[in-house]
């Protein structure tokens, strides 16, 4: 008996992801270098804004103590807060203020690796006989050349810089440690039961404080194939000595054992929300082992098929895609979870991806607002738990081509641009392509400071403080304050999101829990689907993913009324049966007659 449409708070919750450095600095806040940096107190000050948007759960990317080599995804102390963000007391206050508003806080759990400045790692690297040595993955060099220079144990490439090895040599003890993201992020050795106990302890610490649950960073990378085989050659070996080794550590041999243990030891004792970040897995069987209703692992995961639609073999590269592919990815995972009693997360942005309005629609001044609303309509009408990413609700777009690469602060972009400048130094065309890839794919696009108002620094930090990262140049016109207050013939992007989230809650039986049927599948531009509640209430969603007018045959019974379109404020006056004309990037939602 499927439990897919059994109501649960974590299924219906609206989650908003905060990228803490870029969300809101409280008055007077600056980091050590005197630059404006978001803070926990800043987050607390914006809870009313989030509440009015329709948010239930605030998930913040890591705010723990960290050298910030990878913006907090390199943790030096799991039980402390980095002073640039505030203190544990500030988090206690945030939890309490959330509670007052019937909201909750979700933390990021980053336990595939720590920072190389975590005391566990400092102990581990201090000597081969240190009791913490085996908490990380140490290996002898594969070989040494005649000059004695060591070679890494295998050819795996670093994920946030594929020109480099995933192994880092430590001269003190003459061994390499595994660091699949960057040398500053040594991988923990989950084979060691003491490591697992330490992770359970961290989780309980935060759950006991009242956090709602966790987003678990690359949690499907915790088990590695123990023979550490050579990776197949997929990147040009003339320019790439190292190759992606992901197949040997994504959903590795013991991952499910560890996830079950996590469930038994921690999660089963609390009423939590859990979402696993699981890149690189496509097998339905494998995913259901984690998110199936009886899996005893996690509530849901992030499936990356949609955000990887333009990814060939590494993220900083481009691949062509079309609307049919987008439709089939979305429909596939909607159907799989319904048929197999799993659960979806619904998202199209996060801190590791460019802005959706630039990626899937047209972010020019003429169409940006329509595109952002089109994506909002799609997401607010899909089954699963919905995640909104900071700034998505006002349609922030990618930074423009004119921005110098030095404006980009992310380690992945920096490594990528260094690689381009080294290997393509005599090839201006490839260098130009590199710049284009940065403009289209860099993670930085999601990390520009939040555009709150037309006040100096967009209201992100004090007027006399330089923000840590350049704010998008359009903040005077594109900002939350203007969009919240907007009065016109149609809704602002923010108001459209607010409307969509409210509608989703009011009709949770349809949009959160309902059946899903794609219609007119062969259409090359328009994505159409019908959502149906258990009681038989039906809604038709029609999304024109093109900049041209489209004619589309309504395949259902007559539409009773068009509840909204991204071109109108309220109900839309559109054909109720037969041929429907959709304007460029138009999306509409219709109630189908019973
Ligand atoms: C995934 C995170 O989302 C990303 O930002 C980070 O760089 C890696 N995991 C490493 O923690």
TrEMBL record:
Does Transport appear among the keywords? no
Native species: Lithohypha guttulata
- List residues traversing the bilayer: none
UniProt keyword list: Glycosidase, Hydrolase, Maltose metabolism
Entries under CDD domains matching the protein: AmyAc_SI_OligoGlu_DGase
UniProt domain Glycosyl hydrolase family 13 catalytic: residue ranges: 17-430
Question: What protein name is recorded for this chain?
Answer: Glycosyl hydrolase family 13 catalytic domain-containing protein
Entry keyword annotation includes Isomerase? no
Please report which protein family the annotation says this sequence is part of: Belongs to the glycosyl hydrolase 13 family.
């Amino acid at each position: 008996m499927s439990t897919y449409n059994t109501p649960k708070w974590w299924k219906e919750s609206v989650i908003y992801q905060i990228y803490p450095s870029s969300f809101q600095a409280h008055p007077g806040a600056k980091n050590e270098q005197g630059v404006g940096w978001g803070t926990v107190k800043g987050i607390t000050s914006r809870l009313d804004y989030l509440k009015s948007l329709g948010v239930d759960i605030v998930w913040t990317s890591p705010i723990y103590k960290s050298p910030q080599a990878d913006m907090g995804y390199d943790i030096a102390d799991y039980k402390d807060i980095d002073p640039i963000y505030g203190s544990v007391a500030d988090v206690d206050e945030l939890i309490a203020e959330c509670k007052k508003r019937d909201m909750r806080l979700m933390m990021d759990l980053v336990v595939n690796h720590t920072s190389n400045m975590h005391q566990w790692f400092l102990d581990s690297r201090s000597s081969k006989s240190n009791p913490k040595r085996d908490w990380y993955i140490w290996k002898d060099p594969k070989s040494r050349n005649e000059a004695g220079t060591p070679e890494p144990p295998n050819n795996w490439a670093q994920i946030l810089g594929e020109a480099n090895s995933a192994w880092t040599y430590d001269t003190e003890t003459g061994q390499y440690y595994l660091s699949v993201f960057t040398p500053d992020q040594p991988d923990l050795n989950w084979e060691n039961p003491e490591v697992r106990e330490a992770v359970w302890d961290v989780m309980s610490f935060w759950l006991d404080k009242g956090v709602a649950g966790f987003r678990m960073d690359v949690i499907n990378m915790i088990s590695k194939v123990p023979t550490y085989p050579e990776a197949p050659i997929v990147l040009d070996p003339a320019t790439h000595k190292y190759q992606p080794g992901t197949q040997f550590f994504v959903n590795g041999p013991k991952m499910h054992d560890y996830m079950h243990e996590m469930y038994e030891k921690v999660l089963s004792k609390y009423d939590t929300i859990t979402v696993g970040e699981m890149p690189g897995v496509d097998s339905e069987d494998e995913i259901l082992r984690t998110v199936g209703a009886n899996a005893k692992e996690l509530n849901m995961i992030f499936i990356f098929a949609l955000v990887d639609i333009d990814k060939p073999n590494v993220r900083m590269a481009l691949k062509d895609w079309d609307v049919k592919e987008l439709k089939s990815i979305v429909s596939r995972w909607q159907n799989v979870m319904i048929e197999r009693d799993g659960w979806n997360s619904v998202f199209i942005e996060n801190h590791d991806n460019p802005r959706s309005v630039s990626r899937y629609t047209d972010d020019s001044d003429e169409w940006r607002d329509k595109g952002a609303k089109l994506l909002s309509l799609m997401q607010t009408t899909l089954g699963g738990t919905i995640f909104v990413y900071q700034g998505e609700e006002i349609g922030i777009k990618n930074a423009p081509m004119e921005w110098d690469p030095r404006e980009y602060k992310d380690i992945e972009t920096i490594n990528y641009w260094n690689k381009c400048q080294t290997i393509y130094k005599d090839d201006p065309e490839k260098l130009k392509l590199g710049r284009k890839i940065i403009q289209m794919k860099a993670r930085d696009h999601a990390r520009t400071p939040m555009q709150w108002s037309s006040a100096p620094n967009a209201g992100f930090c004090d007027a006399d403080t330089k923000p840590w990262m350049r704010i998008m140049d359009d903040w005077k016109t594109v900002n939350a304050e203007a969009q919240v207050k907007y009065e016109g013939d149609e809704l602002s992007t923010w108001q459209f999101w607010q409307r969509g989230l409210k509608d989703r809650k009011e009709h949770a039986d349809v949009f959160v829990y309902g059946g899903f049927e794609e219609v007119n599948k062969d259409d090359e531009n328009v994505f159409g689907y019908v959502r149906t509640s258990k009681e038989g209430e039906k809604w038709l969603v029609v999304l024109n993913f093109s900049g041209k007018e489209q004619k589309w045959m309504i395949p259902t019974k007559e539409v009773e009324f068009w509840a909204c379109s991204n071109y109108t404020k309220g109900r839309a006056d559109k054909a109720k049966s037969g041929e429907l004309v959709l304007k460029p990037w138009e999306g509409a939602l219709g109630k189908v007659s019973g």
